[in-house]
Amino acid sequence: MRFATTIIIGAGQSGLGMSRHLAARSIDHVVLERGEVANSWRTERWDSLRLLTPNWQSRLPGYGYTGDDPDGFMTMPEVVRFLQRYADSSFAPIVTGTRVTRVRQEDGGYQLATSQGPWQCRMLVIASGACNVASIPSLSGSVPHEVTSLTPLQYSNPGLLPDGGVMIVGAAASGIQLAREIQAAGRRVVLSVGEHVRVPRTYRGRDIQWWMDAIGAMDIRYDAIDDIERARRLPSFQLIGTKQRETVDLNSLRKAGVELVGRLVGIRDGKAQFSGSLANHCALADLKMNRLLASIDDWVHMNGLAERFPAPHRYESTDIGPETRLSMDLKENGIKTVIWATGYHPDYSWLDVPVLDRKGRIRHDGGVVAAPGMYVLGLPFMRRRKSSFIDGAGDDAADLAAHLAQNLARAAA
């Protein structure tokens, strides 16, 4: 049995950020990682994926991007190298190749069963990621057996898909990126659209993430939101990271030849059935985008900075065409693959502590879990809007490291 005062599960950006803060406080700890540093970035992303945040926004405690392309977007190999260099420079005490298979409470702390033997700790930090498992609706079981079902975690590139058309379910960041890439490869693509968050890649000469940072939107705290549970469930921005800083939205996809349909509500006898609410979803997304742009304009005006930026403007409303279909026979329309871009959720199947709700989500208050000495990091809007971004790991880890240190101090008093 090996012991550490604190065990961190996961050596991604959140786990590494927490390690840096604990080290600064001289708190004994170890980071257990199932694979290698940045394992999810290495193994669970498609080939062409880039970060949706600019390089300058890749910031961790005591570390940041130092390359010659601050406004570019890292590829996945570049993200892995960035995080590996951070781990090396921090001298983080990482034990790789160590999968945690069970956690249970014992003797005022926690006992962990792992693939490399048991560990024990007083404090436990879960930084194992928010996107371990693809969230697939139950109606996926009705997909005809001759149609291949995939998730973005299983997708690599268009060339590895079965011949024929592709229906993508979900129009957040993953859905629109895959629709763009697969259509550009010459495939027929049908995109099923539900609730989504439309934003431009750039506005008034700056990246939208620059504006979100400047106006303080990414630092909004969880306890300042009326309905934090809904905020945590919102889809990711419709964004893509490209060298040209392109805006990819439903308008650009439709012009490129992607067929837009409403939210998938059922599949029966090989026929997909779609909601008639597509126009409403698009109108609401346009309204919210324009509210965001107006808040940016207000910030510029209030700070007397109008001369520094181009004049404000607005984007075309989403055009879904004169008519969208409400059903589609998959076979007759040549659909051979369905990709479920319907979100992700964490995997806590190994957590044998009564802290999960009926949907398997961990119960916490800004990362402080409902169990003594347990914390969680890296979840959407966990403490701030930026919590699930690389840029959010440091501030959240600083808060929780302080809370953890106070817990240890009280126990020692």
Describe the structure using short key phrases.
413 residues; five-stranded parallel beta sheet; seven-stranded mixed beta sheet; 2 domains; 25 strands; FAD/NAD(P)-binding domain; alpha/beta
Protein model, in words:
By secondary structure, the protein is an alpha/beta fold. The protein has two domains: 2-132 and 346-412, FAD/NAD(P)-binding domain (3-Layer(bba) Sandwich); 136-340, no CATH class. It has helices at residues 13-24, 39-43, 76-90, 173-184, 208-214, 228-233, 250-256, 278-302, 390-412; strands at residues 2-9, 29-32, 59-60, 63-64, 94-95, 100-106, 109-114, 119-126, 133-134, 148-150, 165-169, 189-192, 197-198, 202-203, 206-207, 237-238, 259-261, 264-268, 271-274, 327-329, 335-340, 344-345, 364-365, 368-369, 374-376. A hairpin with a 2-residue loop joins strand 6 and strand 7 (109-114). The protein is globular, with a radius of gyration of 22 Å.
